[in-house]
């Protein structure tokens, strides 16, 4: 079994025409928004705290385009947990539409979240 098969994706979805530009490739901003969501999912899973805000997304370089119909997986893992913040690494891979099993690395990012309360105030992460 490959590493890809043993990982649990935080998010997995098929890219649709609404997500693309005039050239049929997915907007980078769409991918960035899903990276943010995947990191948030991992933050909640890892800490059991249910409210975070994004404070930083470090260097995102797109290695491959994403096309309509591609099945895109966002794999997230916790890198570091501080008193009020959590750092999550997100890997993004696309399985090409029409060629099952052909998977390419799209991008990756490190995202930093801060735990907040219901009033938006920074709080300690309860572990």
Radius of gyration: 16 Å
CATH architecture: Roll
Determine the N-to-C terminus distance. 32 Å
How many strands?
5
pLDDT < 50 runs, ≥5 residues: none
The number of helices is 2
The CATH homologous superfamily is named Hotdog Thioesterase
Widest beta sheet: strand line-up = 1-3-4-5-2
Overall domain count = 1
Percent strand equals 35-45%
Report the top-level CATH class.
Alpha Beta
Report the principal-axis shape: elongated
> Can you tell me the CATH topology?
Thiol Ester Dehydrase, Chain A
SSE pattern: HEHEEEE
Indicate the mean pLDDT.
Answer: 93
Helix content: 10-25%
Largest sheet: 5 strands, antiparallel
Structural class category:
alpha+beta
Description:
- The protein has a single domain, classed as Thiol Ester Dehydrase, Chain A (Roll), CATH 3.10.129.10.
- The radius of gyration is 16 Å and the shape is elongated.
- It contains two helices and five strands.
- Strand 3 (71-81) and strand 4 form a beta hairpin.
- The protein has helices at residues 3-6, 28-47, and strands at residues 11-14, 52-58, 71-81, 85-95, 103-115.
- It is 19% helix and 36% strand.
- The longest helix has 20 residues, at 28-47.
- It is of the alpha+beta class and 127 residues long.
- The protein has a five-stranded antiparallel beta sheet, with helices on one face.
Keyphrases for this structure?
5-stranded antiparallel beta sheet, Thiol Ester Dehydrase, Chain A, alpha+beta, elongated, 127 residues
Short description:
This protein is an alpha+beta fold and 127 residues long. The chain has helices spanning 3-6, 28-47, and strands at 11-14, 52-58, 71-81, 85-95, 103-115. It has two helices and five strands.
């Amino acid at each position: 079994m490959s590493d890809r098969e043993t990982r649990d994706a935080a998010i997995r979805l098929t890219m649709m025409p609404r997500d693309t530009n005039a050239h049929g490739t997915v907007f980078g901003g769409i991918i960035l928004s899903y990276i943010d969501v995947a990191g948030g999912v991992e933050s909640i899973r890892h800490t059991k705290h249910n409210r975070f805000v994004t404070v930083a997304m470090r260097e995102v370089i797109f290695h491959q385009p994403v096309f309509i119909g591609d099945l895109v997986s966002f794999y997230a893992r916790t890198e570091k947990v501080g008193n009020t913040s959590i750092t999550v690494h997100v890997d993004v891979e696309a399985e090409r539409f029409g060629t099952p099993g052909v998977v390419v690395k799209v991008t990756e990012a490190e995202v930093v979240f801060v735990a907040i309360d219901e009033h938006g105030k920074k709080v300690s992460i309860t572990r």
